[in-house]
Design brief:
With about 250 residues, the protein is mainly alpha-helical. The protein has a single domain (about 5-250), classed as Orthogonal Bundle (Tetracycline Repressor, domain 2). The protein is about 75% helix and about 0% strand. Helix 7 (about 100-115) runs antiparallel to helix 8 (about 130-150), helix 8 (about 130-150) crosses helix 9 and helix 12 (about 195-215) runs antiparallel to helix 13. The longest helix has 26 residues, at about 225-250. The radius of gyration is 18 Å and the shape is globular.
Amino acid sequence: MLRIKDWLKSTFWTPLIGAFLVHASLRSFFLIAIIYFCATAYSFVINNYFDVEIDKKHKEKIKLNINPLAQGIISKKGALMLLGILLFVSLVLALYMDSIGFIFVLLSICASTFYSAKHIRLKEKPGLDIITSGLMFGFFPFLAGVTLAGGGLNFPIILVGILFMILSSTGLLAHQTIDYKQDLGNTKTFAIKIGWKMSCICLILFIVASLLCFEIICQFFTIERWLHYSILIFLIFCFPLRYIKEIKNII
């Protein structure tokens, strides 16, 4: 239910990068890691909880056992108990560390709740789904990491948060593009709304936007040349190619 493999190598590290940029202590790193382990897991558990009926129709997800709730392996009561524990741990620890950081953690959790919750379902509102994903996995977690570690907010830090927002939005759009055929007729997404070809074009535009944002950020920070080039290579090749390879397999 926690779907750890889906986020441990990606969105989980966003708040920790924010903490690193403001020279967080080892203790702060440890607490922020716990907070966002719970907060990120909450996002995926609540998504599973409200996506039960949709996931039952998704043959690939059933095959991979992505949503145990959809297969009846666990009960709704058990899922709600798990959500309560994750919510309690993340919010109590965040409040203990910093009041502003707590607000950003709360915003992350609210965004992930509104993204999946019945009657709101931002994930089924084309355009808002992409923006919400960028906020809940990129912008809010990064600023939470900065503030929970004792750092302040300024224009360069906000710009880095925007970069992470773009990357998170790109990730969701890529997944929507990959799942296009499976989602068609079952749910509403930004990719379904604009069509498969336009989704691929938007992916390229998002990648370009991330490069431009990074270059603007470099004007405010002293970055070693090797690190500058390494991040550029990641943004140009490593990050998008992971999704492009999957899209090619579909073609």
